[in-house]
């Protein structure tokens, strides 16, 4: 039951916001009593903390799964991006911005974990792309990883990127395109254009 609550509450928080969602909302949407939730979580703050951690671990496992399916480096990035599309399209503001604003301690822990996962995933992707001649040789892998991490999470800063004319999903595709064009070979650019066209047809 605890894992079910973590999974469902995470989905609800992402869709309706960390601040506005109450324990009653979660209980009602799960058709369980609020007492059942409090059996496993002493308060909402603990539920937020653990549901975010549960979500992070789930995403990490799915990313590992995608990386093992034999895609080339550029395809791989777009496939990973697809995983987040449904999570972000219903959000009125960035989930990360909400977390930072209302639960700063949990946000700090998330950022530490995210950077570790992000660093390993992107570094491996860059190395793969170089070997496939989709990315240029002699790239500073560590620097590029940090730059892309900063770019992606900067998008979730509502002050820098207020959601006016674009969705979070569209902004993240723009960031991925920007990142890829900066490091791609001619062959890589051709693959990027192919993936961007495919992405348009799926919007």
From TrEMBL:
Residues 22-41 bind DNA. Transmembrane segments: none annotated. Keywords: DNA-binding. It comes from the Bacteria. PROSITE patterns: HTH_TETR_2 (PS50977). Residues 1-59 form the HTH tetR-type domain. One of its GO terms (molecular function) is DNA binding. InterPro entries: Homeodomain-like_sf (IPR009057), HTH-type_Tx_Regulator (IPR050624), HTH_TetR (IPR001647). This is TetR family transcriptional regulator. Pfam families: TetR_N. Coiled coil: none annotated.
């Amino acid at each position: 039951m605890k894992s079910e609550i973590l999974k469902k509450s995470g989905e609800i928080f992402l869709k309706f916001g960390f601040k506005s969602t109450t324990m009653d909302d979660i209980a009602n949407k799960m058709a369980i009593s609020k007492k059942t939730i409090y059996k496993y979580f002493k308060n909402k703050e603990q539920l937020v903390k653990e549901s975010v951690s549960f979500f992070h671990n789930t995403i990490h496992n799915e990313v590992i799964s995608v990386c093992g399916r034999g895609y080339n480096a550029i395809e791989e990035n777009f496939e990973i991006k697809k995983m987040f599309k449904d999570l972000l399209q219903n959000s009125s503001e960035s989930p990360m911005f909400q977390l930072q604003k209302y639960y700063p301690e949990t946000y700090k822990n998330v950022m530490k974990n995210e950077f570790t996962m992000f660093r390993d995933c992107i570094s491996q992707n860059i190395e793969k792309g170089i070997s496939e001649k989709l990315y240029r040789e002699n790239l500073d892998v560590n620097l590029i990883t940090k730059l892309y991490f900063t770019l992606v999470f900067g998008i979730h800063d509502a002050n820098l990127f207020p959601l006016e004319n674009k969705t979070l999903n569209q902004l993240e595709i723009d960031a991925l395109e920007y990142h890829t064009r900066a490091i791609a070979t001619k062959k890589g650019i051709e693959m990027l254009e192919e993936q961007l066209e495919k992405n348009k047809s799926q919007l």
